[in-house]
TrEMBL record:
Annotated source species: Amycolatopsis eburnea
Entry superkingdom: Bacteria
Residue intervals passing through the bilayer: 250-269
Protein name: ABC transporter-associated repeat protein
PROSITE patterns xrefs: TAT
Span of the signal peptide: 1-27
Keyword field contains rRNA processing: no
Key word Metal-binding present: no
Keyword terms: Membrane, Signal, Transmembrane, Transmembrane helix
Length: 278
């Protein structure tokens, strides 16, 4: 066989081997996790790429940054630790004198000050009357309660993890509210929350996310791994990047096989022709 044909066949074989090799899949760039332990933050709905989404407005940056909930852990540091006051009205927090970590309704230096709002300009025309804030479940080492300082100092409960779920409250449109976030034990908590509203056109806008809070000393980033999973009712009808890359590799392999077969056929035909001429 002439040398040039041997070279062509060798190149075709290398092409086939490369085509059959597994194609690398580009890894998705992970979102930057952010732990917020001091200053002012608000949680609320906004329109993101045309979709109603719950996000956290982080006012510890200049300008303020809206962050997706999966990227955020709110940290109730050790300075937030208090004792449950005496009085029957505080029994929902535990026994008098028991420890409680409190992110307060009124701002305190060195302690996170979380609130919630419906003031983002992107939803100004989306909310008819109010936004419903629904709490589906709470996962964590202790009890969670959200309450407001009511008239004459009597607390008004909003959420309490010892009560049946789901629980809900209303947030008036274009409002900004703060409350007391109370936790009875240190560790990682996950609040399964939903915010929804009836738009003026009658459509329901809704999003359900997991809010992560870490209480006390330790590694607050551990709360990123503490989220409970919710299985979707149906798988999305999309092709993964890995599947696309694999199917593309097989198309290249098929093309290489065809080219190799054509070259072998040409070599054999030329060889026979040479023999016939001799």
């Amino acid at each position: 066989m002439p040398r040039r044909w041997r070279v062509i066949l060798r190149l075709a074989a290398l092409t086939l081997a490369a085509a059959l090799a597994p194609s690398p899949v580009a890894a998705a760039t992970p979102a930057q996790p952010t732990v917020i332990a001091d200053g002012h933050v608000d949680m609320g709905p906004r329109m993101v790429d045309g979709a109603w989404k719950i996000q956290v407005r982080d006012d510890t940056t200049q300008p303020a940054t809206w962050r997706p909930l999966p990227d955020v852990v709110l940290h109730a540091v050790s300075a937030a630790k208090r004792e449950v006051p005496t009085g029957a009205e505080y029994a929902f927090l535990g026994a008098p004198g028991a420890p409680v970590w409190l992110l307060p309704q009124v701002q305190r230096p060195g302690v996170l000050w979380p609130g919630w709002n419906t003031q983002d300009p992107s939803i100004a025309g989306m909310v008819d009357r109010e936004v419903t804030w629904r709490l589906h479940t709470v996962a964590g080492p202790g009890r969670f309660a959200l309450f407001l300082n009511g008239n004459f100092g009597k607390p008004q409960e909003v959420f309490d993890s010892t009560r049946p779920f789901p629980q809900e409250t209303g947030i008036e449109k274009a409002s900004h509210v703060h409350g007391n976030w109370a936790f009875s034990a240190a560790g990682a908590y996950t609040l399964d929350i939903e915010m929804l509203t009836a738009a003026p056109d009658g459509k329901t806008l809704s999003d359900r996310e997991q809010l992560r809070i870490y209480v006390g000393d330790g590694q607050p980033a551990a709360a990123f791994a503490a989220a409970t999973s919710r299985t979707p009712t149906s798988a999305p009808a999309t092709v993964s990047q890995e599947d696309s890359a694999t199917s593309g590799g097989w198309w290249y392999a098929l093309g290489a096989v065809i080219i190799l077969a054509a070259l072998v056929f040409a070599v054999l035909a030329r060889t026979r022709r040479g023999r016939s001429d001799s």
